[in-house]
Amino acid sequence: MTGVESPEQYINRADSSGISKVEPRRLLRPYNILEVFLFYGGDLMKLFVGCSSKDNIDKKYLDDCEILIKKLAKFDNIELVYGNDTRGIMGIAYREFSSNNKKVTAVSTDYHHKIEINKAYDEIVVTDSTTGRFEEIHKISDVLLFLPGGLGT
């Protein structure tokens, strides 16, 4: 696929240009996302899904995202990394991956972890800031997928 850097190319470019290390590593058009998973091979892939954690999102977005997430959750080699909420598109991702017996890793700030009622995950990573949260997501995820959402997305 064109436009996708190898990890080595990304590191060399980031080191030589001073670009932040939290820059997304893969830029794909939405219709390419399933191709990535089809051709990735048998290696385990940690997929971060950034999306709405609210239920007041347009139904057409909810429906389209649910179709995509259901397809992704069926791949044998994918685990979910997400923001730890059971509402909105985020909740759809959690339920689909859980119901397909996939490992779910939540990444949360210390502040949100203390006030969250939701404990829907197999593993949790807690950071001290929003910046730290994104850096951790970037570090542990192989692919970052952003779907419709609110201010955080």
Q: How confident is the prediction overall: mean pLDDT?
A: 77
Strand order of the largest sheet: 4-3-2-1-5
Pairing-aware structural class of the strands and helices? Answer: alpha/beta
What about the largest sheet? 5 strands, parallel
Uncertain spans, ≥5 residues at pLDDT below 50?
Answer: 17-28
Q: Helix amount, in percent?
A: 40-55%
Q: Total number of β-strand segments?
A: 5
H-E order: HHEHEHEHEHE
Number of helices: 6
Beta-strand residue percentage: 15-25%
Q: Could you characterize the architecture of this molecule?
A:
The structure is a single chain. This protein has 153 residues and is of the alpha/beta class. Helix content is 41%, strand content 17%. The protein is built from six helices and five strands, in the order H-H-E-H-E-H-E-H-E-H-E. The protein has helices at residues 7-17, 33-39, 59-73, 88-99, 110-115, 130-140; strands spanning 45-50, 78-82, 104-109, 123-127, 143-146. It has a five-stranded parallel β-sheet with strand order 4-3-2-1-5, with helices on both faces. Helix 3 (59-73) packs parallel to helix 4 (88-99). The protein is globular and about 40 Å long.
Task: Give a quick precis of the structure.
The protein has 153 residues and is of the alpha/beta class. The relative contact order is 0.19.
Please name the defining characteristics of this protein.
globular; 17% strand; alpha/beta; 41% helix; 6 helices; 153 residues; 5-stranded parallel sheet
